Amino acid sequence: MSSMSALSPAPDPRPAAAPTLAIGVLTKNEAHRIANCLRSAAFANEVIVVDSGSTDDTMRRAQEMGAKVFSYPDWQGFAEQRNRLLAHVGSDYLFFLDADEVITPELEREIKAAVASGEAAVWRIWWRMVAYGRELKHYRTRGGPERLFRRDTLAGFKGVVHEEAVLHPPFVQAPRHQLHGKLLHYTRQSVRESLEKLTQYTILGAAKRAAAGKRGGVLRGLAAGGVMFTRLYFLRLGFLCGGAGFLYCAFYGLEAFLRYAALKYDRENLRGDVGR
Question: Which of 73, 158, 162, 175 fits a disulfide with 53 by CB distance 3.0 to 4.6 angstroms?
Fold first, then answer.
């Protein structure tokens, strides 16, 4: 036997540890639906909730369901809340889940497979919309946002609304994959909730455009709102979804119009930290 062979270390008989998964949720006054959301996330190794100052039982209910709950009531925008959540993640992968979403069994299986792969990649989701108490079965959703990341690739998030992930330089060109199992999105469950969202997203969207130097105005708003409504109601088949489909598309069109109106008439007072 050669001396080299004699010095070779024996193979480690222990199996490599399987990659772990955290699911992160941002909340504010979500007591009426947080249980369904977190129940669908129970397969994760850890569930982390970052709350933005709830005045209902959101935090208590999340804690009762085993989530790690942290409170940051000084709202500074969606990106900042996601960055705060990142600081508490101890797992190898992170999936972001909104409080009005539920992971289906099909999507759960895909998430588990993605995590088990160990790949340094980014995964997008597909939504299945439920609005005003009705599933929009005929509505054609587009590919949803990036939600699943390997933790060591993720530097943080930027943007006041529809925030974007920022990857560490070595992973900027990481592969992007599509998860095909649907994520149930219980969006706009009432007209009142839609109006509350309308205020927040209108101002945040206007602030984002103001920072980019864009101009507003009623005519620009009418054009943007008309295009948005037409695309959602006709091209994505919202008209096949009854009254719920009309309301869903109409609120998006109204939001697009009001963004440009606020961009002109509220420009000096626009901020990127508007809460609901």
Answer: 73
